[in-house]
Amino acid sequence: MFTGIIEATGTVVSVENKGTNRIFWIASPLAQELKIDQSISHEGVCLTVDALQEGLHRVTAIEETLSKTNLSSWETGRSVNLERCLQFNGRIDGHIVQGHVDTTAECIDRQDLNGSWEFRFRIPEIFYSLIIEKGSVSLNGTSLTIFNITRDAFSVAIIPYTYHHTSISEVVKGSMVNIEFDVIGKYINRRETGV
Length: 195
Fold this sequence. Notes:
Pathway: Cofactor biosynthesis; riboflavin biosynthesis; riboflavin from 2-hydroxy-3-oxobutyl phosphate and 5-amino-6-(D-ribitylamino)uracil: step 2/2. By secondary structure, this protein is mainly β. It has helices spanning 63-68, 160-165, 183-193; strands at 8-18, 21-27, 39-42, 45-53, 56-61, 79-84, 103-112, 117-122, 136-139, 142-150, 153-158, 176-181. A 6-stranded antiparallel barrel has the order 1-2-5-4-3-6. The chain has a 6-stranded antiparallel barrel with strand order 7-8-11-10-9-12.
């Protein structure tokens, strides 16, 4: 479980396809604090550390994960948002994030507002019932607030700290991002719709 407050960004330094799996080595300032079998959010995707080297950790994405996320497009040099799992001895500054991505969304607009940034994302209309005005969403693992909702799109505003300390600065029109909708909203939606 995570909060959507990014701790660091890492860099993909190696990608290997092995059967239906994709194996990534990631360089980051967090690597020296990690241990094998630890859950880490990578761009909002919960992956398990399966090997460590100096300044690096390795994770494996299986077919199910690759089918629901943008990990199949990751190449060397890509920046990734990283967050270690939540500890229940402090504040939750974002919202409850599981690291279980629901779908990907396409960036359809990006505006520099001279002090902040606004991004707009298109989602499959089937997910419309999971977004609400001023509700939370995890976008590449970052906890953000939704506004300006339509049946197939929503916007988020980005403050300078988030822009400069996460991978959102690399998202451009046409980029695909990982989306996890608010888990509380998903349970409420299921209760009301039975879906």
